[in-house]
Design goal:
With about 60 residues, this protein is mainly alpha-helical. The protein has one domain. About 50% of the residues lie in helices and about 0% in strands. It is built from two helices and no strands. The chain has helices at about 5-25, 35-40. It starts with a helix and ends in a 21-residue tail after the last helix. The model has no long low-confidence stretch (mean pLDDT about 85).
Length: about 60
């Protein structure tokens, strides 16, 4: 029963830390734009990389 005297305050402290982290993230704008990161992966690059040779084209000297 005495373990409850430790676990309940500890859980309340952890809850407070989680709420503070959430409030900090909201104020810093982490949740402002949820659509663009999901669409960015579908966008084509504006200039494709020019690959002159592939790793298989190299010859051992």
């Amino acid at each position: 029963m005495s373990i409850l005297a430790v676990l309940i305050p500890l859980s309340l402290v952890l809850l407070g830390v989680a709420i503070a982290a959430f409030i900090w993230a909201v104020r810093r704008g982490q949740f402002d734009d949820l659509e663009t990161p999901a669409i960015d992966i579908l966008a084509d690059d504006s200039s494709p990389r020019n690959v002159s040779e592939s790793p298989h084209d190299r010859h051992a000297d």
